Amino acid sequence: MTQIARIGCLTAAFVCSAVIARSQAQQPARGLPEGNGKALVETACTTCHPVTMITNAGHTLEDWKLLVERMVSAGAPVAPNQFNMVTEYLAKSFPEGNVPKAVIIPGPVKVSFKEWTAPTVGSRPHDPLATHDGYLWYTGQYANVLGRVDTKTGKIQEFRPTTPRSGPHGLVEDKDGNIWFTANSKGYIGKLDPKTEKVTEYKLPPDAGDPHTPLFDRKGTLWFTVQGANKVGRLNPQTGEIKLADSPTARSLPYGMVIDSKGTPYYCEFGAPKIAAIDPNTMAIKEWTLTDPAARPRRIAITSDDQIYYADYARGYLGRLDPKTGAVKEWPSPSGPRSQPYGITFLDGIIWYSESAVKPNTLVRFDPKTEKFQTWVIPAGGGVVRNMMTTRDGNLVMAESALNIVALVQIGK
User: Fold this and answer.
1) Which of 124, 54, 121 is nearest to 92 (CA)?
2) Does residue 214 fall inside a structural domain?
3) Which helix (H) or strand (E) holds 52?
4) 65: domain range?
5) Cα 139–chain centre separation
6) Is 102 part of any domain?
7) Are residues 157 and 229 in the same domain?
8) What's the predicted TM-score (pTM) here?
9) Coil, strand, or helix at residue 214?
């Protein structure tokens, strides 16, 4: 494979999940149009994936530049004199199409945003983490970095995993302040000691796939999903032992994860209309099938009374599953069926999530008691908010992936 062709491999690896959901109804294939840059794009981007991953997309010139920039950050050796030719060709050939309109619903709650640009260009912040000491952490998936933001001073420090191109993805903190991450491109789970900057790697078994979302239970066991391999797993940090279990539904793409008040892990199946629970002792898996066969929950949140809320990325709905009864209730997301709800969390009786397909992205507040929505535009644009979480003082952190930005949302009290 040529060096330039590696761009296509990186694109396939890092944007595959977005393309899966975007192309629920696959459009007819079409070739690359003529133009200056066609030969380079054809060589670079069709070696490792179908041309439809390009032709079914559409972006502004700025967004195409950001995308190619992220590829370069991930290691694609694109010469400076080729960069503008590639981005201009892509923007002219595949312009932004009909983007869903953000629906802004006013309400009584006030929020404010603080946003910081990650220092490494094109790092693509993926998951945010609010640690006990008040820092905002993020994974720079494309640039192989973990970042830490001092939200009071704005100072950002970056840490690099030992293994190149690990693709750090999910983040979680243990009781000792260590930062654990999933190496979504190298098949291991990493532990970073921020004091020493030492990284310890826990390798998954050969051919077990690449871990996705990590989460600790109250006993200190680390649970995780393995999206591409259709598995879930657990890691004993004391012994390093890893156990894996197959998700019962084929190609179900285990994705977001939460743990209930009794210590039971739940995950959503992005490749199926299902949510599942894992028995923490036996690792037996129970699935709940959602009402609509087209549902594709991508991230989930859990309330204090163990109700599961899910962001239905494919249909543009917010949904709720009661695991005790199996009852499902859904609400159309304010910006409609193509709004692609994504990052989601629960805070003080309220569900918060983002609509990732509208431009700019929105922050959505849903009150389960009144069943009313309130929405805000994310100032910098969002750039696909893939995940968010709450802070210890009752605010939110999020990563704005395509824009190389992380954010703190302060909620008026």
Assistant:
1) 54
2) yes
3) helix 52-55
4) 6-93
5) 10
6) no
7) yes
8) 0.85
9) strand
